[in-house]
Write a structure and sequence with these properties.
With 344 residues, the protein is α/β, with parallel strands linked by helices. The chain has a domain of 166 residues: Ribokinase (UDP-N-acetylmuramoyl-L-alanine:D-glutamate ligase, 3-Layer(aba) Sandwich). Helices cover 35% and strands 22% of the residues.
């Protein structure tokens, strides 16, 4: 069994999160030509397991902090095989799934991901799944848990459920003095900004496309310009929010109190980059739970993201503190003694 972070080292005892719970399949299309509107083309299903955002983030947090840490996902699945399998997987990791409702007659969130031979692709995701029914009332059913861990908890607001539900979670988190972490899709960023959700956070995890959308910039804007714009606008007005911006092979940037820190990526054998941003945010949360300085939390996040992409699945089942330590010792860029001690 995975060991737990020591009680003396841990700043928080639980994480309560809301977000999408579901699965998906990967399909390899023959030929790099863009699929036509009425075209039929052959391909094959890939042996790759897909998970939705709340599941990915919560998995890494639970696995890395250990069994004495309480992880409470809030969400909704259909009364179907996919939903039952997702709940069983979360429970097997050690999560408390009491607040994952099974809704008869609904379909569990599912994505069909298609990949071209050159590695590009896209996905089709159900927009009328059980996750779309998650609302503030469902979130508020967990208020007793917020009282239970008042001042000692982390709240996670993840995509793939309505913004209303995430806003309710953040209100409870603020009232009960939780550390508040969130991420948003590029399409959600304007509404999240205008609705004030981003100012009620302590940690905001974005990729470069999401960060660009938040400021109305084109996705092709150089990432350095995106980071600079965030630091001059949002971060100058909200210095207490720690903003993480990831950009794949270009590394990640951490913005806090108008200080900008860049962390290059660690070397990894890339098999699937899906889920790497979620792994990065999960490790930032772990760093906060462990009381790491920002620089060490960012390095830990880069390490977890790098090891996550060595799996063909969106959750790398081999990621743990022991495997991360072994992976870190193979890197040419050394980690701080603090991070290495955490992985012992």
């Amino acid at each position: 069994m995975t060991s737990s972070l020591s009680i003396s080292r841990r700043r928080y005892d639980a994480m309560i999160g809301v977000g999408g719970i579901g699965s998906g399949s990967f399909f390899a299309i023959r030929g790099n030509e863009t699929l036509g509107r009425e075209e039929s083309r052959s391909g094959r299903f890939l042996d790759q397991r897909d998970h939705c955002k709340l599941h990915i983030i919560a998995h890494y947090v639970q696995t890395l902090v250990g069994p004495n840490f309480v992880t409470l996902p809030i969400g909704m699945v259909g009364d179907d095989e996919v939903g039952r399998r997702m709940c069983a997987e979360m429970a097997s990791t050690g999560m408390d799934v009491r607040y994952v409702a099974q809704r008869p007659g609904e379909q569990t969130l599912f994505s069909f991901c298609f990949l071209y031979p050159d590695g590009t692709g896209g996905n089709l995701t159900t927009d009328d799944s059980a996750s779309s029914r998650v609302d503030a009332a469902l979130v508020c059913q967990s208020e007793c848990e917020f009282r239970r861990f008042s001042g000692r908890g982390v709240a996670l607001a993840a995509p793939e459920v309505p913004l209303e539900a995430r806003a309710a979670l953040l209100r409870l988190a603020t009232a009960h003095r939780f550390l508040r972490a969130a991420s948003f899709t590029a399409q959600e960023m304007p509404a999240a900004l205008s609705g004030g959700l981003l100012t009620n956070l302590d940690i905001l995890g974005l990729n470069s496309a999401e960060a660009a959308a938040g400021l109305g910039l084109h996705e092709a804007t150089p990432v350095h310009d995106i980071v600079t714009a965030w630091n001059r606008s949002f971060c100058s007005e909200n210095p207490n929010v720690c903003v993480s911006i990831t950009a794949g092979a270009r590394g990640s940037w951490l913005l806090h109190e108008q200080q900008v820190r860049h962390c290059p990526p660690f070397k990894a054998s890339v098999r699937n980059t899906a889920g790497a941003g979620d792994a990065h945010l999960a490790a930032l949360i772990v760093g906060s739970v462990a009381g790491l300085p920002n620089a060490d939390a960012q390095a830990l996040a880069a390490l977890v993201a790098a090891l996550s992409i060595e799996s063909r699945h969106t959750v790398n089942p081999d990621v743990g503190r022991a495997s991360l330590l072994e992976f870190a010792l193979r890197q040419s860029t050394p980690l701080s003694p603090t991070v290495l001690a955490l992985l012992q």
